[in-house]
Amino acid sequence: MAATDYKFEGWLGLDASAADGKMVWGEFEPKPWEETDVDIKITHCGICGSDLHTLRSGWGPTNYPCCVGHEIVGTVVRVGSDVKNGLKVGDRVGVGAQSESCLGRKGDECKACASGMENYCPRGHVGTYNGVYLNGGKSYGGYATYNRVPAHFAVKIPVEIPSAEAAPMLCGGVTTYAPLKFHGCGPGKSVGIIGLGGLGHFGVMWAKALGADKVVVVSRTSGKKADALQMGADEFIATDEDKDWARKNAGTLDIIVCTVSSTSMPLMEYMSLLGMDGTFVQVGAPDDGLPTIQQFPLIFKRLKLTGSLIGSPGDIREMFELAVEKKVKPWVREVPMKDANKAICEFEAGKPRYRFTLVNEPEQHQQGKL
Ligand code: NAP
Ligand code: ZN
């Protein structure tokens, strides 16, 4: 298929009102083609909390028009002559929240890229949407028909994982997998997951798959308790329903991954759940920053407060292997791509149980009707 046989079209945010369900369908200009790129015909794309932050310019001014979506699954339809990772036309691949890093191209060695931690590349990290590639092109995400991306950031998906389930793993999944792995989640560890949304539900399943002794979900109400237990959680704390929850559970956890993105979250109470030398990993990213931190809980228990950014292509491959080995099954509802505006409104209202995956209907593609 020649490059001109297909159009890059998608749901475009034109201003901050897009986050209220006002994205408009339209054409966009993908990055100028390079021979290290692939083009992907998108079949699926998950909806991530970050899509909403970006659509509403929550993290700073968004470069509109912006097509969000960074949990992309599709079929490779074009492969550049310099693509080195063996991708071929017809391969089923996934693209997560990052689509470029410097990969040492800026001359001197980049420690992050050289060690397989492209997500921490300080000089060339380009987001899959709302970013600018090293060649000057804008990045557009996966609420769309096609995606053009440097092949290094397109990962082959194991046959065992259905596309609708692979999609949310590419950001929501790896964002919880990577810190749990990095901070030693496994036998002998008690792990807390705060916020049972898209990221949180993956966190529970990865912690169990990695062999943690105990997984505790911290949620606002008991509404998701049955689900959490079904996902493999051992205990459940409903913070709005027990005013003594922090004291009762103090010092019981080794690692916490916090997916909450509210500025008014009870951060110090969450941290009090850690025991000596415990690690608190913040992955949720509130528009207006974190609450104030008090020093003594950190000092008295030698706690570590840290963050974590998505995962590298290598992390994504490793996560897929674990998902296949341990039969990790995300809770996903498929939603037609045409209903993306409705779906983001439902997402904002906290409706997903626990991720929505947008699906392109093949016949609509063929008729050019999407
Ligand atoms: P989500 O599905 O909406 O889940 C967030 C969960 O947080 C909710 O399900 C809810 O859980 C809890 N929550 C919401 N409002 C709260 C409040 N006011 N106080 C306490 N808890 C609250 O969103 P997501 O897709 O998982 O994304 C979560 C955050 O992670 C977003 O900020 C997103 O941008 C960020 N993120 C970061 C990275 C990274 O690399 N660090 C990557 C992807 C996403 P309960 O109902 O259980 O309370
Ligand atoms: Zn994301």
TrEMBL record:
Residues 35-158 form the Alcohol dehydrogenase-like N-terminal domain. Residues 198-323 form the Alcohol dehydrogenase-like C-terminal domain. SUPFAM superfamilies: GroES-like (SSF50129), NAD(P)-binding Rossmann-fold domains (SSF51735). The keyword NADP applies. CDD domains: CAD1 (cd05283). One of its GO terms (molecular function) is alcohol dehydrogenase (NADP+) activity. Transmembrane segments: none annotated. GO terms for biological process: alcohol metabolic process. The keyword Zinc applies. PROSITE patterns: ADH_ZINC (PS00059). Its EC number is 1.1.1.2. Pfam families: ADH_N, ADH_zinc_N. Its cofactor is Zn(2+). Keywords: Metal-binding, NADP, Oxidoreductase, Phosphoprotein, Zinc. It is an enzyme of class 1 (oxidoreductase). InterPro entries: ADH-like_C, ADH-like_N, ADH_Zn_CS, CAD-like, GroES-like_sf, NAD(P)-bd_dom_sf. It catalyses: a primary alcohol + NADP(+) = an aldehyde + NADPH + H(+). Belongs to the zinc-containing alcohol dehydrogenase family. Homodimer. This is alcohol dehydrogenase (NADP(+)). It comes from Apodospora peruviana.
